[in-house]
Amino acid sequence: xxxxxxxxxxxxxxxxxxxxxxxxxxxxxxxxxxxxxxxxxxxxxxxxxxxxxxxxxxxxxxxxxxxxxxxxxxxxxxxxxxxxxxxxxxxxxxxxxxxxxxxxxxxxxxxxxxxxxxxxxxxxxxxxxxxxxxxxxxxxxxxxxxxxxxxxxxxxxxxxxxxxxxxxxxxxxxxxxxxxxxxxxxxxxxxxxxxxxxxxxxxxxxxxxxxxxxxxxxxxxxxxxxxxxxxxxxxxxxxxxxxxxxxxxxxxxxxxxxxxxxxxxxxxxxxxxxxxxxxxxxxxxxxxxxxxxxxxxxxxxxxxxxxxxxxxxxxxxxxxxxxxxxxxxxxxxxxxxxxxxxxxxxxxxxxxxxxxxxxxxxxxxxxxxxxxxxxxxxxxxxxxxxxxxxxxxxxxxxxxxxxxxxxxxxxxxxxxxxxxxxxxxxxxxxxxxxxxxxxxxxxxxxxxxxxxxxxxxxxxxxxxxxxxxxxxxxxxxxxxxxxxxxxxxxxxxxxxxxxxxxxxxxxxxxxxxxxxxxxxxxxxxxxxxxxxxxxxxxxxxxxxxxxxxxxxxxxxxxxxxxxx
Length: 564
Fold this sequence. Notes:
By secondary structure, the chain is mainly alpha-helical. The chain has 25 helices and two strands. The chain starts with a helix and ends in a 9-residue tail after the last helix. Mean pLDDT is about 80; it is low at about 180-185 and about 195-220. InterPro entries: FHIP, FHIP_C.
């Protein structure tokens, strides 16, 4: 009751009091916060029931106003006070203790706004980057914590600042030296620290809220092992909140692009980033159905990571496994873009890991299987992956995965040294290779039983190919007089019809000796007539062979139009 009365009284005093010079006003708000801990014995009330959030916001406003009133890069007295009195260290201690409840959120928000609003570089200051680094360690500790949103906002603003000044990342690379980890400060300990007299002078190093834990900047790069901001972001990628996951992935994207060699080395060797990429890619791939229509795989809409919003109810082109396929392609796009943006040496390591832990370990067994349906699905997925990947390093590793790293000429003795390459080439010569695709499409069709080829035709009644085939055969018969693009369409339709797995279609279109009766046409008889007509026309065309070669060159783009 007393704390609430004090809270109301202080607000009334603030409203009636005349405005103070900025530094006095800043010190007043900070001391109002410290007095809360000195005077309040009951710290179980949430921080939102106190005046702490208001004082913190006032301090931010004062710092922002002070900077706007001074020349660029000049540090004002309020900022000097914040730095010399290690206010960020104290706030970190309060946030770690979460005293009063909800204080961690307030501290995270204060750090985020401070780094975001102040234009002058703050991270180079020891009394800024040291507490920032400590606060980073608190992020991502607990999955689905109530502070997740504030944690990711704080981490992302730090990533953005590192992107602006990449050399600052050296302050965030720590030697992996185990120091005694002090217990979380109690409210009593906090009050004792805040109750010490304020002399107005910089605090001695030993008076900090916690023992100094200053990481050595990358002087001895061989000893660097910890990259805590990456670790915290990796933990937040496991959040059940999709928005948090996307923001964490964005933060990682910024960090991998930093050009500092020490950071790139630490990123790939001493964090679990490589494992995150490959483990999640493998999990999404294994969640796909074992059998999928290749046409569905090829035609599913392109996806961008973080934007794979999918509504099953509104999808008119839904098919089994579409949600899983979109999730896989979305994460593949993220891996591809991450490697594309990464520092060069980091990109090579990440791409090699994807090749080893995903392509070789997960995909290769699927491509080597003997199941017709399984190999069809895995080959279609491989084709989709190849078409989607754009990063140079990952494309290079995919080429090595498919073709091997040997650069010498292939011989009969070495033809099977790369089993996967040999297998994929063999599949191109498979009797049922074509694009099997139509068998998969036609499995849903009702053929009204299992049709068989006819032993003989009823020659007493005239045979009619039907209007559809009549038009196609007529078009085929006029192939010598039709435009080139029309001929391509006609032959394409006839080719697809010939691939349909129906014995009657095979018999009528592909059997050159079929006898359908007098005056009846087959595809073979139409082609024979066309060839005969072609031979007659050749005789009437002077210099036919050179002209034929010229046309062929023009079709291949080897000869410009207009030359005779």
